[in-house]
Structures are given as structure tokens and as C-alpha cells.
Amino acid sequence: MKNFIFLVLTTGIFVYGQEHKMESDNVVKLIQVIEYHDNGKISQIGTQRDGVHHGLWEQYDTDGKITALGVYKDGKKEGDWLLWVNDELVRVTYNNNHPSFSENLDVLISRRKKVLSSRN
After folding, report:
1. Burial of 46 (0-12, 13-18, 19+ CB in 10 A)
2. Residue 14 belongs to a domain
3. Which residues, 6 or more positions from 69, have their beta carbon under 8 angstroms from its beta carbon?
4. Structural domain of residue 32, as residue ranges?
């Protein structure tokens, strides 16, 4: 009888443990990476997966001003990137690491301001 009770108790524990087992294969492990200019200021900050850029990345010039903001997917630029070129904000859309569309957002903002000021 004692052996039967021990068998029932231990079987229940093993079944319970198997029912709540988590799969770790679906977990994406990202590592934060920070690169620096020679003057000690941050040049890039973002995340990598398996040693390849993956996720949000920010790029800065030697004065510490942001120059680019966008997402890498498996080492390739993907989607909308914001670039600051000559103090103007430009949006560039990437598809499989190739630019497919660009737009000067500063021009759009100044046009909207003119429209709003003409309404008042």
C-alpha cells in the first residue's frame, strides 16, 4: 500500500511538471550594443541578435546630436528611418535594406505651419 501511494504521488508530480513546461526556442535574445566615437561620445546604440543588428538603432555625430533613428531586422534596415541631414528631418523608407521612398519632413512641417497661420 505504501508503494502504491508513493507511486501515485510521484506520478502526479511528474505529470504536473510536464504540463507546465516552457519552450525556450521561441525566446528572442537581444544584446544591447553601444559604440563610441574617439572623443568618448556615443556613435551608435542599439540591439543585436546573434551578433547581427536587430531592433531599434540610434546613430549620433561626434557632437552628440542624433543623425539617424530606425530599425534593423536580421542585419538589414527595415521600414521608416528618420535621418537628420543638414539640420533637416528626412524620412527614408527601407525595404529589404534598400531605400524605396524618401520625404523631407521639414518641408511638410513648414507647409502645415503656413496653412495654419493663413487660417488665423
Report:
1. buried
2. no
3. 56, 57, 58, 59, 81, 82
4. 24-119
Number of domains within the chain: 1
Q: What is the dihedral of CA 4, 9, 13, 19, to 10 degrees?
A: 70
pLDDT digits (tens, 9 = 90+) for 19-77: 545 555 667 789 999 999 999 999 999 999 999 999 999 999 999 999 999 999 999 99
Q: Is residue 69 part of a domain?
A: yes
What's the predicted TM-score (pTM) here?
0.65
Residue 98 falls within a domain, yes or no? yes
Q: Pull the grid cell for residue 26.
A: 521561441
Residues sharing a CB contact under 8 Å with residue 77, sequence separation 6 or more, in sequence order: 70, 71, 94, 97
The domain that holds 39 is classified in CATH as 2.20.110
In a domain, residue 6? The reply is no
